[in-house]
Structures are given as structure tokens and as C-alpha cells.
Amino acid sequence: MTTVLKRMLMLAAFVVYPLAAVSMFFYGNWYSFFHSYSLAMFFGLTSYCYFSLSLVLSARWKPLDRLFGHDRLIVYHAIISTLALVCGVLHAVLKFVYFPEPTFQSILGVAGLGIFLSVILITVILMLTTPVDRIWPFSLLLAWAKKSIHIDYTRLKTFHNLTAPAFVLIIIHVILAYPVQETAGRTAAVGISGLAAVLFYVYHKLFRPLVNYLADYRVTEVTHLSPNILHIELSGRKNTQFKHRGGQFAFFRFLDPACGFGEHPFTISSPPGVKNLTITVKNLGDFTARLRDLKQNTRCMIDGPYGLFYPEQNSSDLLFIAGGIGITPFLSILGELLNSPRPTPRKISILWSVRHQEEAFALEYLESLSGQLEGYHVSIFLTGKTALDSDLARNRIDYSRLKEEVDRFTSPEDIKAFVCGPENFNKAMQQYLKQTGVAQKNIKIESFSF
Ligand SMILES: Cc1cc2nc3c(=O)[nH]c(=O)nc-3n(C[C@H](O)[C@H](O)[C@H](O)COP(=O)(O)OP(=O)(O)OC[C@H]3O[C@@H](n4cnc5c(N)ncnc54)[C@H](O)[C@@H]3O)c2cc1C
């Protein structure tokens, strides 16, 4: 399914779901729709629908992940949560005009909305990089807040989970509303849709972790590849193999108090089909720093795989561009390509940009593939200061270098390009690729943050 079609599908869900709910309420009574009291109902119902959709989108439901990819789902979750909040506030303001006296039912609604508002504010200020981050003066304020209020990401995520009790308050608020209680059908529809969203959440937060706990993995080896890069190998119980596509990631929760029990996303750097699974981790903060002391045999819960950052089975010309630790998805993709029947002719180029030679931990492996993969070409770029004994020259991936690489292929239109690296790197590479004639629809970007 094309990206445009997928977006249309999601847009349809955003429009059809609240429309169906509103139609049910106004059926046979549309003449009153534009009365401001009815508008309050309209915003209330829309907010409720969006709130429940937002819980479903965040539940890491595999069929949705396979269709949209985890990163897209997080974007949709953020958009729909914001819309739910805006509609909820409009509903509350309009209702207050007619019924300023607080009731048990209205207090529940305001409490739910208040919790939801604080979760969204904290998320936008401290957890996410959103388009607001680029608008002055918010850019300055948000940069200041992120720097001065340092709260661990896992704690922020725990706080984020308050949306669930907020939704429960809102379900009770909606079920107790007079227009809902008017007919059994409305009460059932509101109750069932709310319950379905809660079940998604319970499945995501309780049932799946329980299954992952029972099928846990063990750390078999921790190797220090460089002063700040670790290679962690894990094996499943009874030699179970983790089923993934090269390029996918999973959430890892190490059951060791020293690691803090929070779950973190890492790309699986080992190819599919091998006995033990590996991740390659760069020390970028509190949690990744603690992994240095990870002991053999530590239990680990793995939730995944997720993501769509992999080439289609039959794709021919592949251009991979990695920045720093962004090489990890390509290690498993290349491993998978090595073991799969190949369409002919195929060209594969990989460009890897690192700051220092010591960060080029996979150089030997990538070079060794030259003799094994037909049409394969690897180039390493060193952007930092080179050591005196370095055998790599200082160089960076710019437009002309990328053009040179694209010209190796028969035509830019046939190239499927994959980019994974820091945010600015990804943006620059995307720009260069488009300039060289690679179609936007053929460029896949993986960013190591949501
Ligand atoms: C899809 C994906 C694949 C990744 N693959 C790799 C990989 O192969 N190798 C690697 O070294 N790193 C990878 N990362 C990045 C890795 O998840 C973060 O570096 C790590 O979680 C940072 O945690 P920290 O506490 O050490 O750093 P912090 O300083 O706490 O966090 C740094 C940043 O990492 C992100 N982050 C932190 N915790 C989480 C979390 N629990 N969930 C989501 N994002 C979080 C946030 O954007 C945060 O701002 C990947 C990230 C994503 C989203």
C-alpha cells in the first residue's frame, strides 16, 4: 500500500469515527446541530472518539505497526491526542456557559481533562521534538526547559501513563451524561467503544509484558567495541529464535535494578535466523551508560519486533546511508540479504559516516562482504579529526559525493534509499538524495528517537 493511501486511511479513521458517533446522536434531530449546546455535544463526542483512538494507536498493535510503522503511529497518536484535548476544552467551555454549577459528572470530566492537559504539556515540553520546537520564541523556551528540567525518560513515560486513569474518568463522565443515558443504544455504544480502548491499553501494559516476561531472554555476552559502544548478545529460552526482519527494532527491558527496569528501543543488529540476538548500543545517556555493567545471565524482556525500515524482498538497487550508531539496522539488513535469494542484477552501496575511526566498529565486517555480496560497494567517511595512524582520510558525505554514488546505479528512479543517523544528518541526506533524482517515495528514514 502506498504512503498516500495509508495516510488517506488514517485520515478516514480520524473523520469517520467521530462522524459515526455524532450521527448516532443527532439522527432525526439534525436541525438542532448548530445550536451552541449541540456544538458542545459535538466537541465532547469528537474528543471522546479521539481519546479512545489515541489509546489504540499507542498500544503497539502489530497489524497497525505492519501497516504504518511504529514511528508514524507515534506521530498519529500525538496528533489525535492534541485534537482530543482541543475538542475536550471546547466542549468544557461551551458546557460551562449552559451549566456553570459543578456536578459529580462535570467534576469527573474536568479532572480527566486536567490530567490529560498536564500529560500533553509535559510530553511536548520535555519528551518530544515537535514542529513547535522550531517556532520562535517557543524554540528558546523549550530549549531552556529541556536543558534545565532534567527528568529521566523512563519517569516521563510513567507520568505519560496517567492518560489511562484520565480516560477512565472521562468514560464515566460520558456515560453519566444526560444525552447518553437517554437511550440504551447510546449508553452501550459509548461503553463498548471506551471499553475496547481500555482493553487495548491493558493488553499493551499488562498482558504483553506478562507474555514477554514468561518468554524472557538472557544476556549471554557483553563486548566493549569501543569506549562508548557495546555489543550485547542475548539468547532465548529453549533456543527459541527471535523472528524479525533485518532493520527492525524492539523494546528491551533488562531485569536488573542497576538498569532501572525501564524499556528502551534498540535495533536488532543480528540478522534474522541466527540463534542468538544482538544489539549494538552507544552510550548516549543515563540508561545506556548503566549497560556497561550489565552482567551475563541478566534476564531481559523483549517486546517486538517493530518498524518498517527494511527493503522489500524483491527490491534490486539499494543505497544505504548511515551516520554513527545508525549503522545497526544495516548490519542486520546486509546479513539478511546475504542469506536470501537475490534478484539479478542488484547493486548495493553503503555509505557510513563516523566521527572517529574507533567508532567504525563494523568496518571489517562491512568490507568482508565485498567478496560475498554481488554488486556490493562500501565507503567510510571520517568527519572528526583523524589520528596520525589512521588509515582513513577525513571526508564527509556531501551532495557531490552522494551524486557520485547514485551514478553507480543504472538510474536514480530504481534506487531504494535507506538513511539512519542523527536528525540533522537524516535531513541533509534526504535533501541530497532528492537533488540527485531519487524519488521521495523511495527514501526511507529511521530516526533513533520518537
Ligand atoms: C527505533 C529506534 C531504534 C534505536 N536503535 C538503537 C541502536 O541500535 N543503538 C543505539 O545505541 N541506540 C538506538 N536507539 C536509541 C536508544 O533507544 C537511546 O539512545 C536510548 O534509549 C537512550 O537512553 P538513555 O537513558 O541512555 O539516554 P537519555 O539521555 O535518557 O535519552 C536520550 C534520548 O533517547 C530517547 N529515549 C530515551 N529513552 C527512551 C525510551 N525508553 N524510549 C524511546 N526513546 C527513548 C529520547 O529521545 C531521549 O531524549 C534507537 C532508538 C529508536 C527509537
Overall, the morphology is elongated
Helix content: 40-55%
Supply the helix-strand structural class. alpha/beta
* Tally of helical runs: 15
Number of strands: 11
The main sheet comes to: 6 strands, antiparallel
**Quaternary organisation of the protein chains:** single chain
Task: Write the H/E string, N to C.
Answer: HHHHHHHHHHEEEEEHEEHEHEHEHE
Radius of gyration: 25 Å
Mean pLDDT over the full residue set: 88
Bound molecules: flavin-adenine dinucleotide
Quickly count the domains. 3
The residue ranges in which pLDDT falls below 50 over 5 or more consecutive positions are none
Concise account of the structure shown:
It is built from 15 helices and eleven strands. The protein is an alpha/beta fold. A six-stranded antiparallel β-sheet has the order 4-3-6-1-2-5. It has a five-stranded parallel β-sheet with strand order 9-8-7-10-11.
Report on the architecture of this protein.
With 450 residues, this protein is of the alpha/beta class. It folds into three domains: 3-212; 216-306, Beta Barrel (Elongation Factor Tu (Ef-tu), domain 3), CATH 2.40.30; 318-446, Rossmann fold, CATH 3.40.50. It contains 15 helices and eleven strands. A six-stranded antiparallel beta sheet has the order 4-3-6-1-2-5. It has a five-stranded parallel beta sheet with strand order 9-8-7-10-11. A hairpin with a 2-residue loop joins β1 and β2. α3 (62-68) crosses α4 (70-98), α5 (104-127) packs antiparallel against α8 (163-176) and α14 (399-406) packs across α15 (423-435). The mean pLDDT is 88. It binds flavin-adenine dinucleotide. Flavin-adenine dinucleotide binds at residues 153, 249, 262-267, 279-282, 284-288, 325, 328, 448-450.
